[in-house]
Design a protein that fits this description.
By secondary structure, the chain is mainly alpha-helical. The protein has two domains: about 120 residues, Serine Threonine Protein Phosphatase 5, Tetratricopeptide repeat; about 80 residues, Alpha Horseshoe (Serine Threonine Protein Phosphatase 5, Tetratricopeptide repeat), CATH 1.25.40.10. Helix content is about 70%, strand content about 0%. Helix 3 packs antiparallel against helix 4. It is elongated, with a radius of gyration of 20 Å.
């Protein structure tokens, strides 16, 4: 049975909680509170203008205004290109808005300059892998197979063992008529321990792993789309 609760408020609540773990959702984080979070990062103090935009972005998230949050976080990083927490918040906002290539850039910059929360630092590789994988699915849908392969391979470097990623990588190789590479990817998908498929999906992977290019000319749908 489908949930009767709207999805966007849930996304906003989860996103704000992950960006401001020390602040309850019922409170508004002021610029001073945003600054106090940043003061934990090895003496680094972001520019006042950047802090203001960061706090405004969090308020927009609480109001479920993701576009507004995007603008505020973009202005925050424009005001201070070393503001890791703002890049991290921007990356998560881009993910929510399905702007996956932009999310990749934001998370990579957050990783380079550092973030104040250890939890956020540890989450970046997985978030980057998610962004690369979703970007790859988009490229696959546009039949840009080589571009998609590069995205999926990067996702697997960051987060190995994802069955869905291996499987869609195999579909890309098949799109390029490289059956040997496709079969290797399908076999890795079968052996992967994470990224579980439903029963029918697993059967399809097994079938693809044993089929040649002449068995079916129908283009497969990427799982999870």
């Amino acid at each position: 049975m489908r949930s009767r609760f709207p999805l966007r408020p849930l996304l906003a609540a989860v996103l704000v909680a992950s960006l401001a773990p020390s602040t309850s959702l019922g409170q508004e984080q002021s610029a001073d509170e945003a600054q106090s979070v940043e003061s934990q990062a090895a003496g680094y103090r972001p520019a006042d203008e950047a802090i203001g935009h960061y706090g405004a972005g969090l308020k927009d998230l609480r109001a479920q205004d993701f576009r507004g949050a995007q603008i505020e976080f973009e202005q925050a990083v424009a005001a201070d290109s070393s503001y890791g927490d703002a890049f991290y918040a921007l990356g998560k906002t881009y993910l929510t808005l399905s702007q996956f290539d932009r999310a990749i850039g934001a998370f990579e910059q957050a990783s380079r300059v550092g973030v104040s929360q250890e939890r956020a630092s540890q989450a970046i590789p997985s978030l980057l892998a998610q962004a690369y994988s979703k970007s790859g699915v988009n490229s696959y849908g546009q039949r840009k197979y080589r571009e998609a392969i590069a995205r999926f391979e990067k996702a697997l470097e960051l987060e190995p063992g994802k069955a869905r990623t291996y499987y869609t990588l195999g579909l890309c190789h098949r799109g390029l008529r490289d059956e040997a590479a496709a079969k290797r990817s399908f076999e890795l998908a079968i052996g992967a321990e994470t990224g579980n498929f439903e029963g029918n999906d697993h059967e399809q992977i097994a079938a693809d792993a044993t089929c040649g290019s002449g068995v079916s000319s129908r283009r497969r749908r990427a799982p999870g789309r």
